[in-house]
Input
Amino acid sequence: MRDKKGDIYGLHEVLNTARDLPACRLVIVAPYDAATLLSVSDAQREGVVKALLVGDEKKILECAEKNGVSFRELHVLHSEEESMVERAASMLRNDRADIIMKGIVGTGDFLHILLDPRWGVRTARILSHVGLFEIPETRRLFLMSDAGVNILPNFSRKIHIVANAVDAARKIGIKEIRVAMLAAVEKVHLPAMPATLDAFLMERFSHTGYFGRCEVEGPFAFDNAIDPGKADTKGIRSSVAGRANVLVTPNIETGNVIWKSITCLQRGQAAGVVMGGAFPIVVPSRADDRETKLLSIKFSRLLLGKRRTTRGAGNAA
Output
C-alpha cells in the first residue's frame, strides 16, 4: 500500500508481490531445521521459488518427515557436509540457481566460502545486511543496514552500505527514498562520537549523485529520524527528519539492538537479505522463526527482480 507521501506500508502486502514474479531457483544449504524447511516449502507452494536442497539427504528427509513436508515437494541434492557450500556456490556460478540461503551452517564459514573468487560473488561493492521491517504507527516500511555483516564500518564501507540499502528501497517500490544516518545525537561531536562526522560527511557525499535520486541526511538519533513529532520538538526540520525510510546504523551493535528490539520486544515481523554480491544471499539467524525466514525469501525474490526465471531448474543437479 502507498500513502500520499510516496511511502509504502504493509509488510506482508509488499512482500507478497513476489508471487507475481516468475519463481526463481533458490538453493538452500543444510536445511536441517523445521523453520528453514517449512519456510522454503511455503515459498515453493506460493510459487515464489523452486527449491533445491543441498546437504545430507538423510538429515533433510528426516526433518521433512518430522515436520509433515511432502517428499514430493523436495528436490534434494545429496552432498557431504564439508563440500555442500561449494556445491551450492557452483550452482550459482553455473546459472543453475539464482539465490542462495543458509540453513544450519555457520554464517562466517558460509560467507567466507561464498566470497572465494571461484564463485563470482564479489562485485565492486562490499556485502551488507539489509533488513526490512515496519512500525505500524508510522504507516511506512523501513529498511535498515547493517545489522548483520559489517562490524565497525569505516566511511568508505558505509558508502557501499548506503548504496546497497538504497538499491533495495528502489526494488521494493519506494519512490521517495529518505536515508537517515544514525548516531546518538544530531550534531557532530568529536572525538567522542566519530559516527556523527561520518553521518555529516555522507550527507555531503550524497550531493555528488553517487546514490542517484534520494535524500541522505545526518546525523540523527533514532527517534527524530522516524518520528516527525520528536523531530519537531527538537527543532529539526528537513526532508528526512521524522520521515526517514532507510536507516543506516553506525555499527553492527546498534543495528542488532534495534532489530532485536523490534522482533523480540515488539514481536514485529521483519525480513533480511545480504546485498552487494552478484545475487541476493539469505542469511537468517538460526533463531528466526518460519515466518521470518519466509518473509526473507520473498524479500530476496523482489531484490532479484525480473532478470532470471526458473528456466533450466530441472537440470540443477
